[in-house]
Specification:
two-stranded antiparallel ribbon, 6,7-dimethyl-8-ribityllumazine synthase activity, single chain, 41% helix, alpha/beta
Length: 180
């Protein structure tokens, strides 16, 4: 059983500048979501990160909300939390694949994010994975985001604007030309 295997966990990175993270959760299964949020908050607290929490209706809205925040806000990283439990229809496959694909594309575009959307066969699997005292997948997703933030900071150039992602054109005050 994969759930009982032992895995190596990287030590938390340390930061010399503040870290601000957005936790995006779908509380569709509220008890499971609450446990995942608790695990994520504990990991972020342990690293000294600050965070905000927003809720969205379902797993498909998680990458949309993170994409909006990535374009329009100043978060260093993102934690995606939710749970999809297999049902009787193929909707499960669509939700799992599309939410995962959306998060992967955001990561490839530079968003430092941890994917904590559980995709499970039944409620019992979700409970074990969400519990901070068991598999703590919420904490693991937060830690993944922190590691990616550390890498981005390591490889970022000074004053490179890492974290500032202009979209389209904008005008600098006092100048009459657009910059892209």
């Amino acid at each position: 059983m994969a759930g009982s295997e032992s895995h190596y966990i990287l030590p938390l990175p340390s930061f010399d500048k503040p870290v601000k993270v957005l936790i995006v959760v779908s509380p569709y299964y509220k008890d499971i979501a609450d446990n995942m949020v608790a695990g994520a908050k504990a990991s972020l607290d342990a690293a000294g990160a600050t965070y905000e929490l927003i809720e969205v209706p379902g797993a498909l809205e998680i990458p949309v909300a993170i994409g909006q925040a990535h374009r329009l806000s100043n978060f260093d990283g993102y934690v995606a939390l939710g749970c999809v439990i297999r049902g009787e229809t193929t909707h499960y496959d669509t939700v799992c694949n599309d939410s995962s694909r959306g998060l992967t594309l955001l990561g490839l575009q530079g968003a430092c994010l941890g994917n904590g959307i559980l995709t499970v066969e039944n409620r019992e699997q979700a409970v074990v994975r969400a519990d901070p005292d068991q598999q703590n997948k919420g904490g693991g997703a937060a830690e993944a985001a922190l590691h990616l933030i550390a890498l981005q900071r390591k490889w970022g150039k000074p004053d490179s604007g890492v974290g500032f992602r202009p979209t389209g054109s904008f005008q600098v005050a006092g100048e009459g030309t657009d910059h892209a």
